[in-house]
From TrEMBL:
Keyword DNA damage: no
Annotated organism of origin: Stutzerimonas tarimensis
Name of the molecule in the record: Hsp20 family protein
Keywords: Stress response
SUPFAM superfamilies in alphabetical order: HSP20-like chaperones
PROSITE patterns, per the entry: SHSP
Database matches in InterPro entries: A-crystallin/Hsp20_dom, ACD_IbpA/B, HSP20-like_chaperone
Amino acid sequence: MTAFSMAPLFRQSIGFDRFNDLFESALRNDNGSSYPPYNIEKHGDDHYRIVVAAAGFQDTDLELQVERGVLTVSGGKRENTTENVAYLHQGIAQRAFKLSFRLADHIEVKGAELLNGLLNIDMVRIVPEEAKPKRIPIGNERLALEG
């Protein structure tokens, strides 16, 4: 694995050192697993959706958790509740899985719904007033504060 230094980018930015951790985490966790498949969609400026293919799972088999800015989606294999069934071919995978998504600042999970084998997780960006851009006036206001 090749090391990539983010130091040159930090010279012109303030507070973005978390990106270095994010890239390192992505490189470490890229183990090639793509089960279950998922999409990340953007619906408008501040609305996002993750769609996870959860064929064969019920809502009670799935768990969503947000902790420290990381959304974790996990699914567990159910006990076989169908009696007297012998599979001649079992192509629908129901193995356990765990997906993790790092959420950007001010992203909140609003809800989730399992519909037709797809788990839809809706998120929205809610930027508080103090985090919105504000105009800084240039003038003699500093002198008024000092005097």
